[in-house]
Amino acid sequence: MTIRSMIYSTLALLGGTIALAVIIGGILAIVIDLRIEMSGNGMRPIFTFGDTDDHFSKLELNRSQHYSRLLPPNIKSETKIEFVNNASPENSNSKPDITGLADTPSNSLKPVDEPIERTETSTSYWTDFRGPHRDGHYKQMAIRTNWPTDGLELLWNQPIGGGYASFVVAQERAFTIEQRREQEVVAAYDITTGRELWTHSWDTHFTEVLGGPGPRATPTWHAGRIYALGANGNLWSLDAITGSVVWTRNILNDSEANNLTWAMASSPLVVDDLVVVQPGGPEGWSIVAYDRNSGDIVWHALNDVQSYTSPMIVTLGGLRQILTITAERVVGLTLEDGQLLWEHPWAVQTVPNMAQPIVIGNDRIFISSSYGHGATVIQLTKTGNQFTVETVWRNNRMKNRFGSSVFHDGYIYGFDESILACIDGATGKLQWKGGRYGYGQLLLAGNHLVVLTERGKLVLVKASPDSHQEIASFNAIAGKTWNVPAIDGGRLLVRNTREMAAFKLSE
Fold it and tell me: Which residues neighbour 189 within 8 Å (Cβ) at sequence distance 6 or greater?
């Protein structure tokens, strides 16, 4: 047999194998509703089961049971709402709050008219993306570390709409944003029972090949209101008790910006009387601050294309400021008018930045990106009104893709691509690397890491620079899981594009 004929035979065999795999995959999809999704590296398949239409039918049945148990026969689950400012009644609707009729702890909740000071023990604790300070730290109370072999106590589990947002929690309610058929939906749930309390929805549908459909940005709770950003730029201010609309804008339209390939993923930052978002518009419209009460534009700044990261409020050099990453650089901005305080170039050629920056003490910031870019720590020095920035170290030991790291006792813990790792924050030295959890997410609670793997497993890992020490693990939810977990009041909330669940994490 000649070399050419061997090549032809190999190609024919390969083509036949691929064709057979496609045929088998098609048969399995029809017979057992097999769904094939891609992992975070875009190469490895993740197999899940369940037809999309059937999933939404089950979700709708589940939610109708929530309302039917709570509403007397003569009360409808629809209500007319009054829109203010530029809210549009044509393509949005809300289901009312029904907790006044419920037999759950939520029925005692009252609307909040004035801001509540957030503390580590406040009843409204996990109100932001990745926790109170957006740094992935849970400090409200001690967690249980002796997990049972069959997993933590399940409080509730039920279907959910698509998307990659996380939960925020306030006043015994959990809030998130989902894709349900052709609508994006902001939903409020009773955190104790999982019952849906209200929804607000509007007609829009974003999808792309790798991530699939649904909104990406985690809502924010502040002073009795929810601020939610949809995948196509719809920004809503909603009453957290009733779900009624206070105001709405489209941040892409306001800034004349193009959407990102994987859509708007930056969680709105609410600070003082501002709602800060990153539409990425040209000519000074990269970052925009709206008045949180009226929705009016207060200021806009920079010309950068937006990233997938979320702005943070930090204090550096004794100055309270906005810290964020665009597609081009890490920046510090003034709260009052968005003036640029300092900058450090940080551009990834393949995909705009995704992971959150972390303040690691002594006016130092840790930054990490995937696609071979690596990590760095920069040092800020303030002299008078001016900041100078210098690089402390840079290496390729920690490459966060869309899972952000955490900082604990001088060490940084995070995903180097799909493998958990620990590096020294002062030097960048790799301490250990272990635990193939895929492109998952993690939070820090006490001296432990709570890891949610890409396939929906919960893992408890000791936050120690000595070695990778896995304490416990169990299967929490099924399917591809890129959503950040949330912890509030000793309850751990997890979700992905099809399932949501709550577990008892307290001792």
Answer: 173, 174, 175, 176, 195, 196, 197
353 and 402 share one domain: yes
Determine the average pLDDT of the residues in 103-113: 32
**DSSP annotation string for 184-248:** EEEEEEETTT--EEEEEEEE---EETTTEES--PPPEEETTEEEEE-TTSEEEEEETTT--EEEE
Indicate whether 258 and 132 sit together in one domain.
yes
Is the residue at 127 inside a domain?
yes
- Tens of pLDDT along 181-203? 999 999 999 999 999 999 999 99
DSSP H helices in 249-369: 251-255
The answer on 113 and 29 residing in a single domain is no
In whole angstroms, give the CA distance from residue 128 to residue 70. 29
Quote the tokens at residue 222: 């502040």
Over the stretch 350-387, which tens digit does the pLDDT of each residue have? 888 999 999 998 899 999 999 889 999 999 999 998 99
Query: What type of residue is 3?
Result: I
Q: Are residues 10 and 119 in the same domain?
A: no
141 and 209 co-located in one domain: yes
User: Which of 27-36, 47-56, 122-131, 496-505 is the least confident region?
Assistant: 27-36
Q: Is 362 left (phi over 0), alpha (psi -120 to 50) or beta?
A: left
| 493 contact partners, CB below 8 Å, separation of at least 6 | 167, 169, 174, 191, 485, 486, 487, 500, 501, 502
CATH number at residue 146: 2.130.10.10
Task: Give how many domains the chain has, as a whole number.
Answer: 2
**Percent of the chain whose pLDDT exceeds 70:** 80
Would residue 62 count as lying in a domain? no
Structure tokens at 50: 């369940």
Contact of 500 with 158, CB cutoff 8 Å: yes
* 98 and 33 assigned to the same domain: no
pTM recorded for the entire structure = 0.86
Domain that holds residue 44: 3-51
Separation of alpha carbons 410 and 13, rounded Å: 54
Answer yes or no: do 211 and 270 share one domain. yes
